[in-house]
């Protein structure tokens, strides 16, 4: 299949089929990694990262996605299987993420389209305790791309929108002005922002990042910071 056709197919799958819906697998994410050159079996250039994942079809074992300025994403696919994907398949690369296919969600996790397997806690804990309490093989939710973040917001709005609510996610204040996802990657704090609520971040350090539902002030699961010692429910994502 030629590259242009492949890209068109990816876009179609991405829009029409909510990539992970109905498929037997989900993706395990490695931030800051790309597939080793020797293992790459094909590649494509697409408009959105989910198209890369959609194009990782039957024979594909993993896909690496990196931004290709100004507005494309580059996908590298591999069909090679490694016992240890972190050493056998991937090499470190700051601006790239590898999505490695795995079967299904663990018990207690819900498959959220374009996000992965998500666990919603029933208890409220401070940030540190929340991060330590994600079930086995999961971590506080982090967004790989804006499209993942928005897919998560949509899921929360559909399922948890009856009252004011806040969840801890895997976001911390790394320096006075830098907010960082646990596992790598930063997000800007400038406004207008697709991530932050209109008044955030606005807490003195140390503070931690949550995702906040409060329609009265237009927080529709947008980011808000809060003192890390506050107890909130939390969202974990299977790794
Ligand atoms: C979330 O909402 C969808 C429909 O909007 C429903 O199918 C799904 O079961 C809900 N999930 C949870 C965990 O409540
Ligand atoms: C967080 O909660 C744990 C368990 O309840 C407690 O031991 C710890 O001191 C708390 N940490 C902070 C910073 O509040």
Automatic annotation (TrEMBL):
Gene3D superfamilies assigned: Mannose-Binding Protein A, subunit A
InterPro entries documented for this protein: C-type_lectin-like, C-type_lectin-like/link_sf, CTDL_fold
Organism superkingdom: Eukaryota
Xref: Pfam families: Lectin_C
Residue ranges occupied by any C-type lectin domain in the UniProt entry: 117-237
Transmembrane spans: none
Keyword entries, A-Z: Signal
Signal peptide: 1-24
UniProt entry tagged with the keyword Signal: yes
Protein name listed in UniProt: Uncharacterized protein LOC108667117
Species assigned in the record: Hyalella azteca (Amphipod)
């Amino acid at each position: 299949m030629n590259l242009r056709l492949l890209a068109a197919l990816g876009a179609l799958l991405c829009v029409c089929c909510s990539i992970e819906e109905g498929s037997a697998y989900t993706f395990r994410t490695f931030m800051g990694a790309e597939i080793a050159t020797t293992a790459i079996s094909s590649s494509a250039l697409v408009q959105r990262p989910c198209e890369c994942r959609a194009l990782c079809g039957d024979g594909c074992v993993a896909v690496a996605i990196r931004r290709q300025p100004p507005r494309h994403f580059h996908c590298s696919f591999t069909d090679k299987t490694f016992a240890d994907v972190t050493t056998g398949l991937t090499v470190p690369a700051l601006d790239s993420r590898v999505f490695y296919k795995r079967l299904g969600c663990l018990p207690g996790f819900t498959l959220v389209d374009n996000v992965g397997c998500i666990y919603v806690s029933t208890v409220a804990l401070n940030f540190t305790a929340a991060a330590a309490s994600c079930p086995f093989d999961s971590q506080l939710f982090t967004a790989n791309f804006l499209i993942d973040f928005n897919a998560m917001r949509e899921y929360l709005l559909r399922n948890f929108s009856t009252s004011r609510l806040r969840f801890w996610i895997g976001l911390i204040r790394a320096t006075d002005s830098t907010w960082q996802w646990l596992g790598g990657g930063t997000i800007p704090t400038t406004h207008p922002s697709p991530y932050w609520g209109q008044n955030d971040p606005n807490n003195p350090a140390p503070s931690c990042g949550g995702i906040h539902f409060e329609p009265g002030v237009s927080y529709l699961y947008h980011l808000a910071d809060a003192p890390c010692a506050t107890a909130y429910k939390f969202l974990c994502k299977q790794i």
